[in-house]
Structure to design on (135 residues):
């Protein structure tokens, strides 16, 4: 009886500790973007932040920024072409991000995923229509 109780306590502790710091992908496995989410988590989350995959690699303030802190994709919106350019060329500055961190169909999957899920927390700025005179 004592052994069973001890085993249960240890299993409960293991479950709680195993969940600490774990990253959870919030994209449904049936989604066409799921593979890109997994690839992003595996290859990009060390330097980039994106809540939908539990990635927290970007700096949260200038005080804790390091050279490898990449853009926060919760706020920065990207399209497929921009992502593919960055993947091929090592970001936009070429300073830190490795070139071709993923290639081929993997690069396409990451690009499609980021185009769909980046910028979801970006501040929406109201637009105003402007009519220009032709005179």
């Amino acid at each position: 009886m004592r052994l069973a109780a001890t085993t249960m306590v240890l299993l409960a502790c293991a479950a709680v500790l195993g969940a600490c710091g774990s990253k959870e992908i919030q994209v449904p496995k049936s989604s066409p973007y799921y593979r890109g989410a997994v690839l992003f988590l595996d290859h990009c989350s060390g330097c980039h932040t994106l809540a939908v995959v539990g990635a927290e690699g970007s700096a949260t303030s200038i005080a804790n920024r390091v050279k490898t802190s990449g853009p926060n994709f919760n706020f920065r919106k990207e399209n497929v072409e921009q992502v593919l350019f960055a993947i091929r060329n090592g970001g936009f500055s070429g300073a830190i991000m490795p070139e071709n961190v993923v290639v081929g169909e993997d690069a396409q999957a990451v690009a499609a995923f980021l185009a769909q899920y980046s910028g979801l927390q970006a501040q929406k700025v109201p637009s105003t229509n402007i009519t220009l005179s032709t005179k």
In short: Residues 2-19 form the longest helix (18 residues). Residues 7-22 have pLDDT under 50 and may be disordered. Strands lie at 49-50, 55-56.
